[in-house]
Amino acid sequence: ARQKILLLPGDGIGPEIMEQAVRIIDWLKAERGFDVDLSEDLVGGASLAKHDVPIRDEVIAKAKAADAVLFGSVGDPAWKDVPFDRRPEVAILRLRKELNLYANLRPAKLFDPLLSASALKPDVVRGLDLMIVRETVGGVYFGEPRGIETLPDGTKRGVNTEVYTTAEIERVARVAFDLARLRSGRVCSVEKGNVMESGLLWREVVTDLHKREYSDVTLTHMLADNCAMQLVRDPRQFDVMVTGNLFGDLLSDLASMLTGSLGMLPSATLGTPEGSDRQAALYEPIHGSAPDIAGKGIANPLAQILSLAMMLRYSLDRGADSELIEQAVSNVLASGLRTADIAAAGESRVSTAEMGEAVLKELQKL
Amino acid sequence: ARQKILLLPGDGIGPEIMEQAVRIIDWLKAERGFDVDLSEDLVGGASLAKHDVPIRDEVIAKAKAADAVLFGSVGDPAWKDVPFDRRPEVAILRLRKELNLYANLRPAKLFDPLLSASALKPDVVRGLDLMIVRETVGGVYFGEPRGIETLPDGTKRGVNTEVYTTAEIERVARVAFDLARLRSGRVCSVEKGNVMESGLLWREVVTDLHKREYSDVTLTHMLADNCAMQLVRDPRQFDVMVTGNLFGDLLSDLASMLTGSLGMLPSATLGTPEGSDRQAALYEPIHGSAPDIAGKGIANPLAQILSLAMMLRYSLDRGADSELIEQAVSNVLASGLRTADIAAAGESRVSTAEMGEAVLKELQKL
Ligand SMILES: CC(C)[C@H](C(=O)O)[C@@H](O)C(=O)O
Ligand SMILES: CC(C)[C@H](C(=O)O)[C@@H](O)C(=O)O
């Protein structure tokens, strides 16, 4: 059967970097027999501009029907004054929730030729390769009640609710334990159980599951504040980490910045939509929409291209194509090509399109 | 009038490092006419061991009556199986809440002779000197409802509530703006208003207050995930930062680790108890109770000693004594003395008591 991919470039630098990933898809179609049904739609600021909503129901339906979604980025601050439920970010939040994409896999891997781009000392980060599994459909992102109410004296009160259930914690912890078995066999679970009951439950549930089904894996626990410190002090102590939505948001951004090459890092978000027995998946760069450089043609397309590579392997059963792409990216980096975000002071910089072109040329050689 | 200080060493390394601060106090009494009424009590694990509660009501009352509290640390994991409302951490949480200590000032300052102890490249952190103002009596730490409930099927559900009101946000933002006027005139406010309504309100309230009363200060806003990244990428872009309880917990620990010398950093938590017109204040090291090294006599006492110095300046109007202590600490560091936490590989290490002794000797020379 023809495989279906939905492309959602979004706003900010999303469309520019997606364009380079599409060039790679076109090449795979022409040269590698990639039989794919590609469709594209608007989300985030781009959808707000045309349809007045951050994502249309029909786009959600298309995403559900696809084998995988390749997502760019959303967050254009041009829309910062729209009502809260119409901001660009709602696009990705609704996709995660409605496709039940509960496990966000965020690798922080250092690319050797980019070692000098990190703010950390080479000895602290050399060879860094950790994986954060972040819960993405629960926690304070979605808990009710939520909102802003006006008090009798005219001042306001903002409320959000952090909720986690046994089932929500277990299913994401399973993903982490399974991954650990394929990697180093170590999981560090992160919460703030010394202050929050939801974190206390998190720790209990992970501990129980470990005892019942994963005692071959080494499990440790860490408080989130300590974890933020340990990631800076000695990030290589970690392999797989698992944590809730909000801590995962901060800690995975922190972890990816340690590599010095945020513009290089892909991510996968996996789950199973209600009433479906098929895995759904969304692939997106770890970086955001970078509005400050949007439209300038200087964004790094490699995180988007590597997100495509992840998709080929994990959702489309095209591991060989995935490896080709990763090899091409690695060669391009080794040859010294740099976009602005990964260039050292004084190093010359290529454009988004030139970087995409270079990967394509490498693919043709491989 | 005689000034009243309450000492609360706590558990873990707390008692060991407090002992060194007390030696300094004794010297101030003997040599500098420091007329102080010193009392001491148990909190955290130490109080649990003796009184079966993390803090007694009479200790809260004593703290309210004191001019300032010098706190050590709490968090001994020996008590990890006590009920949630009896864990050691309740001691510090109740003190903050009942004394209404809403503004936690957490400096991240790099000590030049310790530059090499940071995991970051010298060029990224040299001269780092930022101040995080963290809200400490609101947010998800204290919001209701909270707890763990058992669902009909026997599984559980953990809930916490993040709440911020206009008044709570305004008063802590004022502290940040006032501080900025004494420093660089810049404040960065941090929240997650693209996902949480409480963060959206935070941004609104800080923006309004700035417009009304502090337009001479430069105000910027940053999302918490981006902030975690920016603190690693280029921490010197920040001067004063202001944020909620939970983000402040993670970000201030992260920021202090950038300095490579967590064991050196003091903090102050300020507020005004309900029904009082007098400022209350608690001073404590930024580091925790470090149970892994407790009782070994190797903890760094300098954060506790510098917390005393902060107290002398900000609560006891003894600025000259405060400067003496800071000078003594600075001389001791310059002379090359290092506890284990700040020693480079191969450097010789002194004990907690030796470090305290060295500061005392310097004081005698000054
Ligand atoms: C865009 C935003 C809603 C999102 C989040 O907070 O989850 C982003 O920061 C991420 O990490 O994917
Ligand atoms: C001990 C703990 C409750 C506390 C907190 O989370 O506030 C500590 O981490 C801190 O930052 O002072």
UniProtKB/TrEMBL annotation, chains A, B:
Domain of life of the native organism: Bacteria
E.C. no: 1.1.1.85
Organism of provenance: Parasaccharibacter apium
Keyword set, alphabetical order: Amino-acid biosynthesis, Branched-chain amino acid biosynthesis, Cytoplasm, Leucine biosynthesis, Magnesium, Manganese, Metal-binding, NAD, Oxidoreductase
Family: Belongs to the isocitrate and isopropylmalate dehydrogenases family. LeuB type 1 subfamily.
Needed cofactors: Mg(2+); Mn(2+)
Gene3D superfamilies referenced in this protein's UniProt entry, alphabetically: Isopropylmalate Dehydrogenase
Assembly notes: Homodimer.
Official protein name in the record: 3-isopropylmalate dehydrogenase
Residues noted as binding Mg(2+) in the record, renumbered to the chain: 225, 249, 253
Metabolic or biological pathway: Amino-acid biosynthesis; L-leucine biosynthesis; L-leucine from 3-methyl-2-oxobutanoate: step 3/4
PANTHER family the UniProt entry points to: 3-ISOPROPYLMALATE DEHYDROGENASE
Recorded catalytic activity of this chain's protein: (2R,3S)-3-isopropylmalate + NAD(+) = 4-methyl-2-oxopentanoate + CO2 + NADH
Binding site for substrate: 96, 106, 134, 225
Cross-referenced InterPro entries: IsoCit/isopropylmalate_DH_CS, IsoPropMal-DH-like_dom, Isopropylmalate_DH
PROSITE patterns per the UniProt record, alphabetical: IDH_IMDH (PS00470)
Cofactor remark from the record: Binds 1 Mg(2+) or Mn(2+) ion per subunit.
UniProt cross-references to Pfam families, sorted A to Z: Iso_dh (PF00180)
Location of the Isopropylmalate dehydrogenase-like domain: 4-359
Sites where the protein binds NAD(+): 288-300
Subcellular location field: Cytoplasm
Site (Important for catalysis): 141, 192
